[in-house]
Amino acid sequence: MALPLLTLPKAELHMHIEGSLEPDMMFALAQRNGISLPYDSVAAVRAAYEFENLQSFLDLYYAGAQVLQTEQDFYDLTWAYLHKCAAQGVRHTEIFFDPQSHCDRGIPYETVHHGITQALRDAKTHLDISSGLILCFLRHLSADAAMATLEQALPYGEDIIAVGLDSSELGHPPSKFQAVFDRARAEGLLTVAHAGEEGPPEYIWEAIQLLKVSRIDHGVRCVEDPALVDYLIEHQIPLTVCPLSNIKLCVFESMAQHNLKQLLELGLCVTVNSDDPAYFGGYLLENMTAAQTALDLSDRQMQQLAHNSFRASFLSPQEKQPFLEP
Ligand code: ADE
Ligand code: ZN
Question: In terms of pTM, does the model score above 0.90?
Answer without folding.
Answer: yes
